[in-house]
Known about the structure:
70% of the residues lie in helices and 0% in strands. By secondary structure, it is an all-alpha fold. The protein folds into 2 domains: 26-71, no CATH class; 78-305, MFS general substrate transporter like domains (Growth Hormone, Chain: A, Up-down Bundle). The protein starts with 5 loop residues before the first helix and ends with a helix. Keywords: Membrane, Transmembrane, Transmembrane helix, Transport.
Amino acid sequence: MPILGWQWLLALSTGPLLAFAMICPWLPESARYHVASGQTEKALETLEKIAKDNGKPMLLGRLVVDDVTLSSPHRGRFRDLLVPSLRRTSLLLWFIWCSCAFCYYGLVLMTTELFESSAIACAEGLRPAQSLDTCAADCKPLQTTDYIDLLWTTLAEFPGIFITIFIIERYGRKKTMAVQFVTYAICCCFLVICPGKRTVLTLMLFLARGIIAGVFQAAYVYTPEVYPTSLRSVGVGSCSAMARLGAMVTPYVAQVLLKTSITFATSTYAVAALLASIACMLLPIETAGKELPENTSEQRQANANT
């Protein structure tokens, strides 16, 4: 980007997306979608293709369709997310997703601000807010070392996501997200100190970036598991929408409030992460090792057994 500019960076970044778009026509449609829409023959064709691709024989017998699946005229309604058996789960997940996006994109935006020389060497600007001192980061071009350190913080997402994949099966989804949010808050507290050494700052940003990326991964695993099949896409979609709200708000903290007080900005993210950690522990269901509910009645049974 220092050589060609952000336009070329954006253009080159779309290359992988175009490759995925070209593959989409060869992706098989969901067999359950065909069943739910009454297209049982297409569902059988999809299952046969999947069996063939995996080198397995097609199961013998005939496909039996649940009458409830075909007869229900109100599949996947948004208001069903707020029925008594799901209301608490939905409200907590909406807050968790909003906080996760708020913290993730806030850290992304703060990274470049903190890497600017005037923002790093601002120990005196970290006094309490009542002193009216500011720590404004002037708009200066990033140096080569800034881009290298920024790349390191970005690469943190790979170990963060892969580590999360393993620990969520061992310790569960709720505990994993809760501990990660707390760890992220601790990293934000170190950012408040505004360390003079560039290595320490990069390390804290690296840890925070990997952890919050792991939280997103755990949320994407937990959310479709906790909702019944009939509401799974609506539930995940509503949570994703709430995450976008958090992403819309975070620039006012990561860029506007940060120029006034680094302490207030980083503390805001730490508090949001701690509240999200509490919300994770308040979730009524741990989905690790449990069967996915097919409908709301099975969901109520799962709540009763928790």
